[in-house]
Amino acid sequence: MTILRPGPWLPDLPEFENPGALEALNCFPLTAQSYGAIRALIAQGNALTARCQGAGSFRGIDGTVFNTAFDATKAYQWDGTAWNDVSRLVGGAYAVADADMVSLTQFGNFVIAVNGTDAPQKWEIGASSNYAVLGGSPPVGRFVCTIRDFVQIGRIGGAKNQVRWCAINNVEGWTIGTSQSDLQDIPEGGQVMGQVGGEYGTVFMERSIYRQTYVGSPAVFQFDRMSEYLGCCCENSIATYEQMTFFLDFDGFYMIQGGQGIRSIGTQKVNDYFWSGARAVNPSYLHRVQGIVDPDAISYSVIYPSVESTDGTPDTMLIYHIALDRWSRVEIDVDYLFRFLSSVGYHTDNIDTVITNTDATAYLTDSNPFFGSGNAQLAAFGTDKKLATFSGSNMAARIDTAEVQLNEGGRAFVSEVWPICDGGTLSVDLGTRDLPTAGVTWNGSVAINSTGFCPFRSNARYHRARIEVAAGGTWTHNQGIRPKFMAAGRF
Description:
The protein is mostly beta strands and 491 residues long. The protein is built from one helix and 39 strands.
C-alpha cells in the first residue's frame, strides 16, 4: 500500500500535491519522517500580581541557581516552590510600560535588568535579598546584553538609536571615556529593536542589522552593517542559540548563522501563514510576539496573539526545529516563555511541596521537574500568571496530509486507512473533492478498529487525510497513513 507521510508543515504552499503537511497542530517535528507529541502545561507555585513581562534563569559562580520574573510593578525570585517579592526597596514600584518587557543579562554574579523606564537594576547571586539600582549612573534603556567583558544597554532614553557600554570588566563603571566605557549612535536603520551578546554583538534596528566587534581602544567596538534592508519588526522575537540568532521582520522569519550569513527560515513555509493565514498575527499586538529557544528540543518557538485574540494574549505558538528545518504549531494561551533552570530535583519524598495531590497530578515521572538541580527546560507563565512547565500529559494532536490523486488521472475508492503511529487513541477523517475548484468535503472522523485500520467507503478524485490523536495518550512517532484503495474510473 502507498504510504502518505505528512512531511514538513508547509501552509504557504498549494494544497494539491503539497510536498508536506497541510496541518501539524499540537505536535513537534521530531524526525525527518515523523511528528512527536507536545505535553500540556502544568502550573505550579503562586501567581504573580500581574502578567509576566520578563523572566530569566541564571547560575552563579558557585553553581547557585537564580530564577527571576517581573510584572509591571514588581520583581520576583523563585525559591523552588513559590515566587517571592524582591522588588527594590528604594524608588517605589516599577513602571514597565504595557508594550515593553524587562530585558535581563548576566555578568559574573550580577544579573542586570532594564525595562526602558526605570533605572537599571542589579541582583548579586548569593548575596542580594532585593533588587537595587545598578551603580555608576548607567543610562535608562530598553535592552541589555553582555558582549565579551562589557555590559551594553540599547535604545537609550531619547536616543533610541544609541547603544552604550560599561567600563571593561566593570559593570558599575559608566563614565564615558573611562576604561573603554563609551557609546555609539547608529546613524541608519531607525531605532534599536534588540541586541544579542557573546563573543561579538549583534544590534537589530528597524531597517538594518549591525555586527559589533571588539577592537580595543580608542574605538573599542567596530560596527559593520550586515543588512541594508532587513531589520526586526518585533523586538521580542529575537532569540539565540549557540552561533545562531533568530528574528522576525515584516517579510518573515530569519536566522543569522555565525554572525554573518542571513537566511530565511520561513519563505514558502510559514511566513504567509503568520501574516495573513487562518491564525495570522493580530497586528495591533506585535509587542506581544515573543521568541525563545527550547534548550531540550533545540528549537525556536514563537508565541503570538492571533486574529482570534481580542485582548492581545498570545494564543498560538510556532515551533521551528533548527536541525530539521521544519515547523509545526500549537494552540495554547500563555503570557510569556522563558528558559527555566530547576533549582530542586523533585522525587516521591518532596514533590508534594509543589503538587498537593500527587494522586491527581498530570505530571509524568520522566518530565523535567523530576530531574536534578539546574536542569534547563522551556517554561511559561500562563494566563493564570503562574509558572508552568510542559510536563503534563500529551495534548490532542492533528496532522493533515497533502491532497493527492491516488489513482493518477482518475477516481479512487478508499476502503481502509491505516494510521502509522506507535500509540495513542487514533482516528482518521478523509477530505475529498472532485474538482480543484470545489470545496473540500470531510467524510467524518472514523476511529481505528481492533485490526488497526479505519474503515471507509470514499469515492473521489482527490483525497487528503486528517490524523487525530486524542489527548492523554502515550505515543512518540506519528508517520502518516497507509490508504487501501482501488481505481474507480476516470469520471
